[in-house]
Amino acid sequence: MKHLIALAIKFVIITLVLLVILTWAFDVSFMNTLMISLALTALSYAIGDILIFLNAGKPGNQSTRNTIATFTDFIMALAVILLIGWLLTGEFAAMVAPALTSALVLSAGEWFFHQYVDRSVVPWYNEYKSAKS
């Protein structure tokens, strides 16, 4: 249940940011923005928040894990918005500025979302004890 709540929060954040930047500032259609939001939410949560964030360093070193996962989320957001935007609109060059702007804003938010994931979704992770110690 905690993962579903986190996914819903992430979807709302991504959708709101993309609506402001893509739809209002760069005139991308609402449906295209919604499709990009859905794809980015699923990929970013599975890869950036669960796979990379939890495995990018020692459990107690949240800052390192957060930095690596945030950078990965930036690259992933840039790629997903650019590629899906290009496929949906047919205009690659016109999607570069919106994708870059959106990725920067989203990655700033990801820093705080990772802290939420650490505290509320996987709080047991920081209490992990290695079998080697």
UniProtKB/TrEMBL annotation:
Highest taxon of the lineage: Bacteria
InterPro entries on file: DUF2512
Transmembrane region positions? 7-26, 32-56, 68-88, 94-113
Signal peptide position in this chain? none
Give the Pfam families listed for this entry.
DUF2512
Is the Ion transport keyword given for this protein?
no
Going by the UniProt record, its keywords in alphabetical order are: Membrane, Transmembrane, Transmembrane helix
Q: In its keyword annotation, does this UniProt entry include Membrane?
A: yes
Q: What is this protein called?
A: DUF2512 domain-containing protein
Could you tell me which species this protein originates from? Planococcus rifietoensis
